Amino acid sequence: MRKRFMAIAALFTLLSAAALGQDAKTVIATASKAMGADVLNTVEYSASGSDFTLGQAYSPDSAWPRFIVKSYTRAIDFRVPASRADRIRLQAENPPRGGGQQPVRGEQPQSQTIIVNANTPWAQQLEIWMTPHGFLRAAAANNATVRTQTGGRRVNVISFTGPNKAQVNGYVSDQNLVERVETWIDNAYLGDMHVEALFTEYRDFAGVKFPMRIVQRQGGHPILDLTVSDVRPNAAVTIQAPQGRGGAPAGAAAPAAQPSGTPSEKLAEGVYLILGGYASLAFDFKDHIVVVEGPQSEQRALDVIAEAKRLIPNKPIRYVVNTHHHIDHASGLRAFVAEGATIVTHQVNRAWYEKIFALPHTLNPDRLSASNRRPAFETMTDKKVMTDGNHVIELHHLRDSGHNAGLIMVYLPRQKILLQADAFNPPAQADAPVPTPVSPYVANLATTLNRLKLDVERIIPVHYPADGRQVMRAELMRMVGQGTN
Question: Using alpha carbons only, what angle is made at residue 347 by residues 378 and 316, rounded to the nearest 5 degrees?
Fold first, then answer.
């Protein structure tokens, strides 16, 4: 009897699974027909609105900084698949607040082209598959399932698993319209980061229904908010890869030898500049190493750690100084915590770091996930001095900077060197014309150096100039119209 019951139960499960799979196919097919997705090979649309830069907020508790999108044109070929987006953006934050290449002077054109092949990262592919019609195509090709969600009104939730092992969910209304698509992607800064796209105000264009309002969110804040003005279904589009792009692979970390792509410069006895990415400093204290800046990614942080240990062998890295909380300047901090280092940062960042360091990193577990270490912090407000009796490192809060509420600059009084991040990013050429108007970020840095009476000769920008030149104080002062004073 028991065996018979189990056989019936197993058969019921198989039949239910088959019915569920059929239901998903039916829901996808019905929505595809209603939205015209089954006859849509290409689409081109125009819009305007706002975009926002992920992880570049002025303060940890504020949204990503906003820019005006004067014009936005996007073409998608679902058959390739491929996408090309062209936009013109303008400054929106006045006065400028936060990162994202602010201040933008005049019109700033930006383009993004994605042509999917076997090596295209899933996060880039999602630019296509998180559109309403793209989602239905992806769901149909990826053994999707469906469930019904109620809570005021009935919604079908279509789900499939992406190559990164995260669920991709599409929410289809009782009008058979895709209203929302969500998933999770790995982010070195925010862990398993939630991303979503919202679609409203659908209109019919020759049998293809398309949303006139598109809002995309990442990490809990909007990154794109568009009002669509024109849609051209099945337009003739040609999407070609941009010319002249390429990049060198990151250097491999090897403690016994200098990692490829991680050059260094001896600034003084026991003081080293590490390049090959964002600039970092390493200090040979009596019984430990102090590193300034753990930026960009876990791999970049591992390269910096390896090079610091090569330059200063047989000592632990005890401290890593963090200039500010922006995503590109803090995405390597977890690797330093896994190494056992204490983070030195501004007090305004502590609660934020405690929050994001606790976020799950299950999609791509990093070294901190494996180590289970808890982050340790030393914080400052206006000024902090780190010394072993030999080296002296002064940390100064760059007050009144619109770039970041907790921006720290690093001054070496004995070497007359200043390391700073984003207050002054030197132009490609030292003799470049002085921008008009002067950036308030640059002006604030020059004013601060004068106010604090810091005897600075050389400035090390974390965004090091591409030509590798030494940046002197005179170059900063010229950029604010103060000659060589």
Answer: 20
114: Cβ contacts below 8 Å, ≥ 6 apart: 82, 83, 84, 120, 124, 125, 127, 128
CATH number of the domain within which 284 lies:
3.60.15.10
Q: What is the pLDDT of residues 216-268, one digit of tens each?
A: 999 999 999 999 999 999 999 999 988 754 333 333 333 333 445 799 999 99
CA atoms within 13 A on the CB side of 370: 6
Pick from 424, 101, 426, 421: nearest CA to 293: 421
Structure tokens at 195: 């991303």
Among 430, 426, 428, 392, CA closest to 411: 392
Per-residue model confidence as pLDDT tens digits over 5-38: 444 444 444 334 444 445 999 999 999 999 999 9
Q: Is 485 helix (H, G, I), strand (E, B) or coil?
A: coil
- Structural domain including 323 reads 264-479
The pTM assigned to this predicted structure is 0.90
| Cα 62 to Cα 475: distance, rounded to the nearest angstrom | 33
Q: Closest Cα partner for 135 from 179, 176, 177, 181?
A: 181
Determine the Cα–Cα distance for residues 309 and 288; give it in Å rounded to an integer. Answer: 10
pLDDT per residue as tens digits for the range 148-204: 998 778 999 999 999 999 999 999 999 999 999 999 999 999 999 999 999 999 999
Shared domain for 270 and 199, answered yes or no, is no
Whole-Å CA distances, 229 to 46, 207, 272, 292: 6, 17, 54, 48
Q: Are residues 269 and 225 in the same domain?
A: no
